[in-house]
Amino acid sequence: MLGTSTTHLLYLHGFRSSPQSAKARLMAQVVARNFPAVQWWCPQLPPSPRDAMNMVAQGIAPWPAQSMAVVGSSLGGFYATWVAERMQCKAVLLNPAVNPARDLEKYIGDVTSWHDPSENFYFKPEYIAELRGLECGPLTQMQRYFTIIAKGDEVLDWREMHARYVHASMLLLEGGDHAISDFENHIAAVLDHLKVAT
């Protein structure tokens, strides 16, 4: 299964982010240009974690689990782990959130979008319990995971990420930032793990 070429690729953005993030747009461009046969989906995720994963689960329901893969950034990395464990598919995690139920408590209330400050949403207290409900516990088949972790992440603790995915394939960046601003330098490693179908 893990050696199967990826035919369907899901990208999950992070908290306050969108399909307009630099990484999401770059991945979309690379896939469209070089792998036109691959089905690409990068949905705008609703603020509710439960609603977000219900939407994703419905969207990928017809996908072939053996040849789909998921890429997730930050909170999207936490979600991508849930998808990978549920579907038993390959996953690439970019500075993945490890304990978002703890980390996002301070954001309860009105929150603005990164890419359009005129857009805002209300992050409800019950979303914290929804995040706890998506926690996967011990991970299975670590070979399905590839993580890119920046020690210079200014939002999340790289040591937590490293400890959570220590047995996965990993690219540990000295320095860097939460956004992985040099993501274009790592696209080849991402595609290599995904074995994207040509």
Poorly predicted residue ranges: none
Q: How many separate helices?
A: 7
Q: Under the CATH scheme, which class?
A: Alpha Beta
Name the helix and strand elements from N-terminus to C-terminus, one letter apiece. Answer: EHEHEHEHEEHEHEH
Number of structural units classed as domains? 1
Q: Please tell me what the overall shape is.
A: globular
CATH architectural type: 3-Layer(aba) Sandwich
Gap between N and C termini, in Å? 17 Å
CATH topology: Rossmann fold
| Derived structural class | alpha/beta
Report on this model:
The structure is a single chain. With 198 residues, the protein is an alpha/beta fold. The protein has a single domain, classed as 3-Layer(aba) Sandwich (Rossmann fold), CATH 3.40.50.1820. The protein has helices spanning 22-34, 49-60, 75-87, 100-103, 126-133, 158-164, 187-194; strands at residues 8-12, 39-41, 68-73, 90-94, 109-112, 120-123, 145-150, 169-173. It has a six-stranded parallel β-sheet with strand order 2-1-3-4-7-8, sandwiched between helices. A two-stranded antiparallel ribbon has the order 5-6. A hairpin with a 7-residue loop joins strand 5 and strand 6. The longest helix is centred in the N-terminal third of the chain and has 13 residues, at 22-34. The protein is globular, with a radius of gyration of 16 Å.
